[in-house]
Amino acid sequence: MDLxxxxxxxxxxxxxxxxAGAFADNTxxxxxxxxxxxxxxxxxxxxxxxxYELTVNLNGTQIYTAFEMDIELPSGLEPVMEEDDxxxxxxxxxxxxxxxxxxxxTVRSGNKIFSHDLAVSYGAVGKNILRMACLSVKGKDxxxxxxxxxxxxxxxxxxxxxxxxxxxxxxxHLTTNEKVIIDGKxxxxxxxxxxxxxxTITAKAHSTATINVSAKNQWGSCVVPFDIxELPSGLExxxxxxxxxxxxxxxxxxxxxxxxxxxLYAENGFSGTFSGDVDETKYKEVAQQDIIYGAIVPQxxxxxxxxxxxxxxxxxxxMSGQTFEIPAGKCWVMPTFSNGAKYMxxxxxxxxxxxxxxxxxxxxxxxxxxxxSLDGKxxxxxxxxxxxxxxxxxVLKLK
Length: 399
What we know:
Layout: H1 3-18, E1 31-33, E2 36-39, E3 43-44, E4 52-59, E5 66-72, E6 77-79, E7 81-83, E8 89-91, E9 93-95, E10 105-108, E11 111-114, E12 117-122, E13 129-135, E14 147-156, E15 163-182, E16 185-194, E17 197-203, E18 206-213, E19 219-222, E20 236-244, E21 247-253, E22 262-265, E23 270-277, E24 286-289, E25 292-295, E26 299-301, E27 305-309, E28 314-318, E29 324-326, E30 331-333, E31 343-348, E32 371-372, E33 378-379, E34 387-390, E35 393-396
Parallel strand pairs: 1-16, 3-17, 21-31
Antiparallel strand pairs: 2-4, 4-14, 5-13, 5-15, 6-14, 7-8, 9-14, 10-11, 12-13, 15-16, 15-17, 18-23, 19-22, 20-21, 20-22, 24-25, 25-30, 26-29, 27-28, 28-31, 32-33, 34-35
């Protein structure tokens, strides 16, 4: 859509529909209406990659000429984004132009030329909120009191909650071409305010998720809403505990259990797709296993540790008050001991005990870990990539 046209739409809806009730002479008043907007039935399969069509339908008792509304989608259901006429990525939301459309049009060279235009944004006015505004710059009326307004093209992520999900419709305003007096001047545009509504969409109890570990970093994290009974060759998974500040002990896993956050290791990198059934009763927005947490719904955090590569290899670095956005399916660590540590080293614990002992460094401690070979001999210069014994546990030296 032309940028100037979009601005005209927004200006019209702001000045005529939204702000008009604030004029000092009180000659204009917004009105309430029992007319309402509903959503069409929609069932999605999380993570399928399919593009779904969610229709928005007007149920009215009089003829309108414009509308605006906010639609808050559930976490995990997002609009498809496409490049608009300005070269920017915008939500793929189209006016309903099919048979029985309520938008007036003319036919030129066999094509329908519609009188109304639509402006849409996503996430600009609130998380997960799709805002749309529609009008005819020539003030054309709809051709019917009820009908489909728009189609929202959307995708369902692997982390969409199974079962019923709420979709909230708020700030819904419908405008007629009625004459109104604003600041002593006659204008057209009576705003009718609709009641807020909650509609639902349905997500199947089956999900598909892709797990990626970059070859450069070799380390990653994940949490999935279904079981992965057996890990493929080349991918390792670890649950996380801490025993001393600055040290994260990793316990190897042969599988990944639903809603169990893990750290991942792949020496040569890894990319694979997994599917499984999801137990609706076990759904949670944040999953926890010992000191590692996984985001099923995206989280904003400024405390704890996240995997980063700051030039010295991948470590669990402290957030230290800096805000991090944890995407759905990724993890962070909240140790029981931190003592101001800037990062946590990662060592692999397979349950071996009784060989050697050491005090572990946390960046603030003045003691360095003491390394022993697997036959119990002290090693002064441990090499990266080799397995040693530290504090009675097998560890993999990372740098």
